[in-house]
Amino acid sequence: MQGTGAITISSPSSLFAQNIKPEMKKEVEIGFDTQWFEKHPLEVNFSFYTATNYNQIIDLGLTASTGYADTKVNAGGFRNWGYEFFAKYTPVLTKIHKLDVSLTIANQYSKVTSLYPGINQYAISGSGAYTEVAIPGQKIGNIQAYDYLRDHTTGKKIVNANTGIYSPDNSHLVEVGNINPYLLGGFFVDYHFKNLGIHVGMNYKFGGTYLSYTNYYLYGQGLTKATLQYRDAAHGGMAYYINKSNHNMALPTGATSAPTDSQDGIVYHNGLILDGVKDDGSGHFVKNDLIISDYTYYSTYVHDMSEWFQPDKLSKNDYLKVREVSISYTLPQKIAQKLAVEKLMLSAFGRNLFYLYKTLPNIDPESSMGSNSFVEYTSLPQVRTLGFKLDASF
Q1: Which segment, 53-57, 335-339, 371-375, 376-380, is predicted with the most confidence on average?
Q2: How many helices (H) and strands (E) does the chain have?
Q3: Residues sharing a CB contact under 8 Å with residue 301, sequence separation 6 or more, in sequence order
Q4: Which strands make up the sheet holding 77-93, listed edge to edge?
Q5: What is the mean pLDDT of residues 316-330?
Q6: Which stretches within the chain are classed as H helix?
Q7: Which of 69-83, 110-124, 262-276 has the highest mean pLDDT?
Q8: Residues 6 or more apart from 167 whose CB is under 8 A from it?
Q9: 7, 101, 369, 376: which has the fewest Cβ within 10 Å?
Q10: Residue 331 DSSP code
Q11: Looking at residues 290-294, what average pLDDT do you find?
């Protein structure tokens, strides 16, 4: 009992698994490394690889009646294949000038080849509202989430006839994206003029679906520029009033006075009608005409963990970032020798500087804390480093 100091013993939650085989991997890689030209050197490296992983060890859930939560099994395998490309070109090469331009490109493809017998789908990570799944024959990293409730005939979103907002379809999950990028790499420029050197390094990534809690909260609380829409007449808001039956009623654009059946005598200019259909009360769907306020609409995007995340607010995490800029100067050897050193170089640098382009709004796409690689729950800013360095060789 608590407070008695009695020693307690808990049984393990996982059932001991016998005859577990070690995970295995078979990989083949081919490529080439070439160099061309003397006046303007060109270096090109390329490699292609394919790897098959099998006998993967995963936790297989068990029913509570067994007394255990799960057991470990060899659950099948997956296959990865991809390429890596590197090119470096020197368009300027003289006794006092040198310019190098480098490019790297990489991509990796993947597919689930098999799972444990009798299992058609395995949840890798996630919650009830979104799940990263593995399905035989499909790519690794597919994300499933709840969609909007839709009219099966037209595919249009269904608006709740009482609230005027969209409803989730919690009956099943649908595929909404994949967490993996389809292209990543870098671009680098190095320029040397006598003893002066300048380096600029950039990285890029394209592809990969991202779930940002921060953006859902910002959007839901009206704290982003995007939520200016419908805020007033100047931003597309409709004019309406609230009648004594507590229903929002449309008014002509520019209206300044409310009818006599107005509840409060106020004309509002922050209304909108969501695109979709509603139930007319007889089981038939008709075009939605319910007016709601901008607050009612945006506040539906304030979520807590494991709730519904509207799939059209998931983000593509593409970016092009200036990773590093540095400038260095190497003192002439005569001066260095007078200082009793072989080589002396002074440099100034900056790292993690800024983005030239990114699709994930309001947060740094590389500085997230969450449950896994595609979920951001508490965004922390990246550290930008500025500094000076002195290198001496004796």
Answers
A1: 53-57
A2: 3, 26
A3: 216, 217, 219, 220, 310, 313
A4: 24-36, 42-54, 77-93, 97-114, 183-193, 196-206, 319-330, 343-358, 385-393
A5: 94
A6: 213-220, 294-298, 333-338
A7: 262-276
A8: 148, 149, 158, 159, 160
A9: 7
A10: P
A11: 96
Question: Using CA atoms, how far apart are residues 266 and 144, in angstroms rounded to an integer?
Answer: 44
Task: Note the maximum CA span of the chain.
Answer: 96
Tell me how far apart the alpha carbons of residues 331 and 321 are, in angstroms, rounded to a whole number: 31
Q: In degrees, to the nearest 5, what angle opens at C-alpha 180 toward C-alphas 177 and 186?
A: 135
| pLDDT of 370 above 70 | no
Residue 1 has pLDDT above 60, yes or no: no
d(CA 205, CA 372): 18
Q: How far apart are CA 175 and CA 143, in angstroms?
A: 6
Asked whether the predicted pLDDT for residue 245 surpasses 70, the reply is yes
Phi-psi region at 282: left, alpha or beta (left = phi > 0; alpha = psi -120 to 50): alpha
Give residue 301's Cα distance to chain centre: 18
Whether 288 shows a pLDDT value over 90: the answer reads yes
Q: pLDDT by residue (tens digit) across 151-199?
A: 998 999 999 999 999 989 988 889 999 999 999 999 999 999 998 999 9
Residue 264: CB partners within 8 Å, gap ≥ 6? 242, 258
Q: Is residue 54 a contact partner of residue 77, using CB atoms and an 8 Å limit?
A: yes
Alpha-carbon gap, residue 76 to 126, rounded angstroms: 21
CA distance 130 to 36: 50
Torsion sign, CA atoms 363, 367, 370, 375: positive
Q: What share of the chain is helix, strand, coil (3-state, %, to 5)?
A: 10, 50, 40
Which sequence spans correspond to the domains of the chain?
A: 120-146+169-221+304-394, 222-301
pLDDT in tens, 300-321: 988 765 678 898 888 899 999 9
H or E stretch at 137: none
Residue 6 zone, left/alpha/beta (φ > 0; ψ -120 to 50; rest): beta
Contact 291, 319 (CB under 8 A): no
Closest CA to 362 of 252, 256, 227, 224: 224
